[in-house]
Amino acid sequence: MPARSPRLPKPRTSWAGSLAPDEQLVRIALAVVPVEHRTEGLTWLTTAASAGTALGAPLSGHLIDAYGPGAG
């Protein structure tokens, strides 16, 4: 019988009533990744989020410079 994942706490919501994207991803990872691989799974998640932010900021800046604020 597979190990059961611990019950996830009720999510906190922001003033707008939605979860922050990082918190949503962590909740999904905790539900999907097996307990014995959680550290590795969360490390990959953090690395991907950091890389996406590092690449997305300069790329969106170039789009805004080239095509105006509506492109960002």
- Give me the secondary-structure category: mainly alpha
Mean residue pLDDT: 80
Largest sheet: none
Q: Can you count the helices? A: 2
Report the order of strands and helices: HH
- Rg calc: 17 Å
Number of strands: 0
Question: Could you tell me the strand content as a percent range?
Answer: under 5%
**Given the C-alpha coordinates, what overall shape results?**
elongated
**Whole-Å distance between the termini?**
49 Å
Spans where pLDDT lies below 50 across 5 or more residues = none
Helix content: 55-70%
Task: Give a structural overview.
This protein is an all-alpha fold and 72 residues long. It contains 2 helices and no strands. It has helices spanning 21-32, 38-67. α1 (21-32) packs antiparallel against α2. The protein starts with 20 loop residues before the first helix and ends in a 5-residue tail after the last helix. The model has no long low-confidence stretch (mean pLDDT 80).
Quick rundown:
With 72 residues, the chain is mainly α.
List keywords for this structure.
72 residues; mainly alpha; 2 helices
Topology of helices and strands:
Layout: H1 21-32, H2 38-67
